[in-house]
């Protein structure tokens, strides 16, 4: 169901803190769809239930996240194939771990460029619960996260925003924190890779594009890092992300964009085996049958919206592989 304020970036997202700190593995596109579902559930007269579907159109997605409608169609199709399989866990009121899905049903509406999702009872309860304590809820503007290109940046922002007033966080246990960011046990296992590819990149993007200024300290047991503590400052003049006027450090590479990359480099990215396994399903028609046409198509899609190719790792990382990581034979 489309919001009457679909073109506005000043959409308030409300989730319970327990839901925000859940261990999950949503992609950037899937997080954005959940955000829109939360917003639309608050703006519809019927509210949010575990029985009635919420419809999100490609136009709605395109307006909120500043992509073209064709790209929005593609990401909705991609989400339809993956969102139902996403699971997460959280601790309930009885201090027990609960494992559940985000959605109980997903349907792509052919000919309308829309997707309908039904959230599970656990998600509905956490979004709509009222216990009289406003501090139990995390509130933030969708506009603050809409321009973030990394799923890790969005998740870190969601985790930290609830500590805005306290200006600091407790210790985030390393393994729990990795799960909350959506990392698997084999993702960025080396601490240097985790900090460079995930944590430092997310901190830099949040500081660059949102209303928060954050920093962190690592805590060790003997010589082993066991977790992180964050300091949070609200900027005196909050950014207006929709205007996209924030200056960038010219000396800091953005791992989530394609700024400065040549067509030859983008073609190389398209032939990375992991990239092929993740994104080749986007290629339709001739592009799905011919490898040369596939690469031409993918390069064009990357140029239109590189953010949708950051699902598993920052897009520039696909340039750093060994020759065995690529398929140049076809």
Q: In words, what does this structure look like?
A:
- This protein folds into 3 domains: 146 residues, Winged helix-like DNA-binding domain superfamily/Winged helix DNA-binding domain (Arc Repressor Mutant, subunit A); 99 residues, Orthogonal Bundle (Arc Repressor Mutant, subunit A), CATH 1.10.10.10; 63 residues, no CATH class.
- The N terminus is likely disordered.
- Helices cover 36% and strands 18% of the residues.
- It is of the alpha+beta class and 330 residues long.
Give the ordered list of helices and strands. EHHEHHEEEEHEHHEHHEEHHH
Name given to the CATH homologous superfamily of the largest domain: Winged helix-like DNA-binding domain superfamily/Winged helix DNA-binding domain
Shape designation: globular
Number of strands: 10
| Low-pLDDT stretches | 1-10, 130-137, 240-254
